């Protein structure tokens, strides 16, 4: 496996469900496979409109078949002895704690809420070209909360400076507010890899914590 291909696979995410099939968090492939090897989780696989459960040994058997008949339908981790398909969903076998019901206030979720779009000019930028702007500047008593922080591009941020949008002649494209659900999940669902998550997240009135 080429290094770039391996990096791409290791960059995949896995949805973790609790014992009662409720989504808890999103973890990386390495952590998911470690839990599978330790028999802490089982794989939940979406196949022809249905979900099936597999432990480590049965997932290895299924991976062998899929490697032969549908290798391009999956991402793969290669070991010395076998190839294993990257699971999309795993279920904790002994954990029945209920999920968090609050969206974490952090930079990642603000960028995700605003979809990497400057909230003044409306253009989309890479994260490296965006900053977080206090709508009401801190020196004017503006708080660091969901309703006062937005993504802003370099040009708009420089134009606004330490002023309010009205003072700087800028207009917000939409009023910022706290998301009801974790906004990062919606970004993942736009990727074909994670469509099998949808059934579990559509009916979720909780947030999936990213770790």
Q: In angstroms, what separates the terminal alpha carbons? A: 27 Å
Number of helices: 8
Q: Which stretches of 5+ consecutive residues score pLDDT under 50?
A: 204-211
What kind of sheet is the major sheet?
Answer: 6 strands, mixed
Mean of residue pLDDT values: 84
**Tally of strands:** 10
Which strand order do you get reading across the main beta sheet? 4-3-7-1-2-10
Secondary-structure class: alpha+beta
Radius of gyration: 21 Å
How would the global form be characterised? elongated
Strand fraction equals 15-25%
- The overall number of domains is 2
Task: Indicate the percent of residues in helices.
Answer: 25-40%
Reading the helices and strands in chain order gives HEEHEEHEEEHEEHHHHE
């Amino acid at each position: 496996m080429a290094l770039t291909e391996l990096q791409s696979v290791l960059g995949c995410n896995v949805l973790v469900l609790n014992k009662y099939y409720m989504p808890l968090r999103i973890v990386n492939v390495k952590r998911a496979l470690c839990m599978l090897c330790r028999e802490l989780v089982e794989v939940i696989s979406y196949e022809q409109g249905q979900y099936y459960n597999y432990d480590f040994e049965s997932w290895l058997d299924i991976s062998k078949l899929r490697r032969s008949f549908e290798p391009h339908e999956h991402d793969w981790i290669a070991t010395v002895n076998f190839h294993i398909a990257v699971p999309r969903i795993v279920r904790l076998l002994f954990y029945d704690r209920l999920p968090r019901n609050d969206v974490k206030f952090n930079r990642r979720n603000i960028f995700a809420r605003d979809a990497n779009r400057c909230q003044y000019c409306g253009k989309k930028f890479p994260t490296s070209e965006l900053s977080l702007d206090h709508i009401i500047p801190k020196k004017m008593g503006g708080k660091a909360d969901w309703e006062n922080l937005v993504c802003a591009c370099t040009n708009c941020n420089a134009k606004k400076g330490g002023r309010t949008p009205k003072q700087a002649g800028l207009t917000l494209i939409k009023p910022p507010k706290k998301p009801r659900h974790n906004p990062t999940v919606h970004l993942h669902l736009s990727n074909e890899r994670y469509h099998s998550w949808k059934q579990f997240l559509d009916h979720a009135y909780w947030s999936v914590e990213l770790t």
